[in-house]
C-alpha cells in the first residue's frame, strides 16, 4: 500500500491535476469521518477508471451547507484515520483543504441556485442546504476536473440534484450513484451515527425496518407502502420529518419503479435513508 498524495491547498490540486492531464480521473467528494460506505465509493471509483486511472478523494466539511443550529462545529473531523481508509482503498490523492483556501475572502458571492428540486424533503427543513452543497461540488469539479464522480445513494436527493446540475450546466462529468452500505441490522452507514447513544442506536435500526416494510407492501400501491412503513415507526415512537413514496426522479409516484425516503430525529441525531421499491398499480 502506498500513501495517497496529500493535497492541502487548491494550488496543490492544480499542480497535481496538470501532471495527470492524460489519465482518467475518478473523484469521490466527502466530508471525511470516512466509513465503509465511503470505502465502497472509492472501490467503485477505482473500477470506473481502472488501475491506470487516478482516484482522488476530497475531505472538506463545507460550512456553506450547514444551517444555523446544525452540527457544523461538532461534525467529526478525523483526518489521520481518513487517510488510512484512503490508503487501504488505493486512493492516489486526497484533497483536504482549509476553509479559507476554498472560500478566500469568506462566503462566495456567486452560488449555484438548485431550483425546485431543492425545496422539497431535505430542502424544506434545511433551508439553503442544497445551494451550499451544489456550490462546493461545482467548485470541487472545477478544481479536480474529473471524468467521473461518485456519490452515495444514501443522500438520494443530493445525488438527484448533482445529476441535474451536471446536466443543466453542461458539466462533462459522468455522475455515478453507489448503493447504500448498511450495518447488519440494516442501519445505513453515516458519519453521523457516532452521535447515537446505545439506546438511540437500537431505535435507529427501525428506519431501515420501516423502509423494508414499505418495500414489501408496495405491490399494493404507494399509499399501502407508506402505511406499512409508518406503522413500524409508530411502534418505536418515531414521528418522521417526512416519509414519502415518490417516482425515481422524486416526482409524484406512479406504478413502476419508485423510491421511498425517510428522515427522522432519533435522540438528538437527524438520520435519513431511502430505498427503491416497485409500486403496484
Ligand atoms: O455528501 C457529502 O458528504 C457532502 O454533501 C458533499 C457532496 C461532499 C459536499 O460537501
UniProtKB/TrEMBL annotation:
Cited SUPFAM superfamilies: Nucleotidylyl transferase (SSF52374)
A GO cellular component entry from the record: cytosol
Pathway named in the protein's UniProt entry: Cofactor biosynthesis; (R)-pantothenate biosynthesis; (R)-pantothenate from (R)-pantoate and beta-alanine: step 1/1
UniProt signal peptide: none
Subcellular location: Cytoplasm
Keywords: ATP-binding, Cytoplasm, Ligase, Nucleotide-binding, Pantothenate biosynthesis
Documented EC number(s): 6.3.2.1
Keyword Ligase: yes
An annotated GO BP: pantothenate biosynthetic process
Residues holding beta-alanine: 65
Gene3D superfamilies (alphabetical): HUPs (3.40.50.620), Pantoate-beta-alanine ligase, C-terminal domain (3.30.1300.10)
Binding site residues for ATP: 31-38, 152-155, 189-192
GO molecular function (one): pantoate-beta-alanine ligase activity
InterPro entries: Pantoate_ligase (IPR003721), Pantoate_ligase_C (IPR042176), Rossmann-like_a/b/a_fold (IPR014729)
Catalysed conversion reaction: (R)-pantoate + beta-alanine + ATP = (R)-pantothenate + AMP + diphosphate + H(+)
Residues that coordinate or bind (R)-pantoate: 65, 158
Active site: 38 (proton donor)
PANTHER family, sorted: CYTIDYLATE KINASE/PANTOATE-BETA-ALANINE LIGASE, PANTOATE--BETA-ALANINE LIGASE
Biological function: Catalyzes the condensation of pantoate with beta-alanine in an ATP-dependent reaction via a pantoyl-adenylate intermediate.
Additional remark text: The reaction proceeds by a bi uni uni bi ping pong mechanism.
Family that this chain belongs to: Belongs to the pantothenate synthetase family.
Subunit-structure text: Homodimer.
Listed name of the protein: Pantothenate synthetase
Amino acid at each position: 500500500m502506498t500513501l495517497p498524495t496529500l493535497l492541502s491547498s487548491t494550488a496543490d490540486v492544480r499542480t497535481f491535476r496538470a501532471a495527470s492531464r492524460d489519465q482518467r480521473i475518478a473523484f469521490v467528494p466527502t466530508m471525511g469521518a470516512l466509513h465503509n460506505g465511503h470505502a465502497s465509493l472509492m472501490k467503485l471509483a477505482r473500477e470506473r477508471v481502472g488501475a491506470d486511472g487516478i482516484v482522488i478523494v476530497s475531505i472538506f466539511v463545507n460550512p456553506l451547507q450547514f444551517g444555523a443550529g446544525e452540527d457544523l462545529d461538532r461534525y467529526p473531523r478525523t483526518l489521520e484515520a481518513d487517510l488510512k481508509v484512503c490508503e487501504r482503498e488505493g486512493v492516489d490523492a486526497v484533497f483536504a483543504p482549509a476553509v479559507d483556501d476554498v472560500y478566500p475572502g469568506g462566503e462566495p458571492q456567486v452560488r449555484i441556485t438548485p431550483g425546485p428540486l431543492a425545496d422539497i424533503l431535505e430542502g424544506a427543513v434545511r433551508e439553503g442546504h442544497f445551494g451550499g452543497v451544489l456550490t462546493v461540488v461545482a467548485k470541487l469539479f472545477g478544481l479536480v476536473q474529473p471524468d467521473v464522480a461518485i456519490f452515495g445513494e444514501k443522500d438520494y436527493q443530493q445525488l438527484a440534484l448533482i445529476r441535474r446540475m451536471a446536466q443543466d450546466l453542461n458539466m462533462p462529468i459522468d455522475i455515478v450513484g453507489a448503493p447504500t452500505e448498511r450495518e447488519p441490522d440494516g442501519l445505513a452507514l453515516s458519519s453521523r451515527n457516532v452521535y447515537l447513544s446505545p439506546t438511540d442506536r437500537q431505535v435507529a435500526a427501525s428506519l431501515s425496518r420501516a423502509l423494508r416494510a414499505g418495500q414489501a407492501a408496495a405491490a399494493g400501491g404507494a399509499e399501502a407502502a407508506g402505511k406499512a412503513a409508518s406503522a413500524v415507526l409508530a411502534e418505536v415512537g418515531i414521528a418522521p420529518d417526512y416519509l414519502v413514496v415518490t417516482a425515481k426522479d422524486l416526482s409524484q409516484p406512479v406504478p413502476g419503479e419508485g423510491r421511498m425516503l425517510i428522515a427522522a430525529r432519533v435522540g438528538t441525531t437527524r438520520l435519513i435513508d431511502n430505498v427503491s421499491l416497485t409500486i403496484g398499480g
